[in-house]
Amino acid sequence: MKRFIAFTLLLLTVPFTSTLVHAVTLTFSTLDYPGAVNTYAQGISGDMIVGYYYDGKTYQGFSYDGNTWTTLTYPDNTNVNNRTFPTGISGNTITGYYNSISGGKGFLYDGKTWTTLSYPSSRHTYIYDISGNNMVGYAFGDAIDNAFFYDGITWRDLSFPGAHDSTIIPTGVSGNTIVGTYEENVKGKTVGFMYDGKTVTVLNYPGALWTDPSGISEKYIVGEYSDGSQSHGFLYDGTTWTSFDYPDTLPYASATDIDGNTIIGLYSDATGTHGFTATLSGETPPIPEPSTGLLLGLGLSIAAVIRRKLKGK
């Protein structure tokens, strides 16, 4: 099922020292895998969206090109309870993870060939996003418990000052820039971050209880935040934070990824969890020049480690 809703948000923004109001139009479309109980849109590249769905018995992956839904199931004949979770896409390459008898395994799928990815010496490997050859995720088990960056050749552990290493969850990647969450060493508070391999920038929606960045493009970061009573989606351009909820539903939305001006994510209502697309148009905040805003920032039990953006499963 697919339905469209267009509405305009008047957004109060606080970019550094001044207060501005911007009118932004988001045109929403519900994404429900045919016959599914719940649908979870996770990654977008061009016209292709990937994610997974629950049919009342098990979870399987999907791809959707705007017209055709295709089921994605990792070919593992040794596991009758195989579940497949696509989480990211870059061009024609899909990544994610599946459950095997020996533990969770990452995968790559190019439309023809499935390739298993396993962090060295770990029992579980979860790939959360991909950009070109670069992938991010989390590995644990058998004395391994850490986030990683993988370029198709070398696995690199993610670690930076001020964070409990085992709490770093990288959820999005664009080029060499990573977004995600971690728990602070001192306060124990969960915060969002942006990391370019050298500098970490904390990302906190103003006044939020927690902030969970999930996707990043050249211009924007998207994710979810909590105001203490409910969760909302957000869009951030390096200067301006924009909050949104799927219209005419219970106040819960989580943006999971963005490509161009198309945001994807999840929302919940009385009938279950649904995917959505939201097309950004209208008057939008200006994109900062390379010396400011976003690039200033860039200068910067299996389920237990799965990012918050997958919640509702």
Fourth CATH level, the homologous superfamily: TolB, C-terminal domain
Q: What Rg do the Cα atoms give?
A: 18 Å
Largest sheet: 5 strands, antiparallel
Total domain modules? 1
Describe this structure in words.
This protein is about 0% helix and about 55% strand. The chain has one domain: 6 Propeller (Neuraminidase). The model is unreliable at about 1-20 and about 285-313 (pLDDT under 50). It is mainly beta and about 325 residues long. The radius of gyration is 18 Å and the shape is globular. The chain has one helix and 25 strands. The longest helix is centred in the C-terminal third of the chain and has 6 residues, at about 295-300. Strands 1-2-25-24-23 form a five-stranded antiparallel β-sheet, with no helix packed on it. It has a four-stranded antiparallel β-sheet with strand order 3-4-5-6, with no helix packed on it.
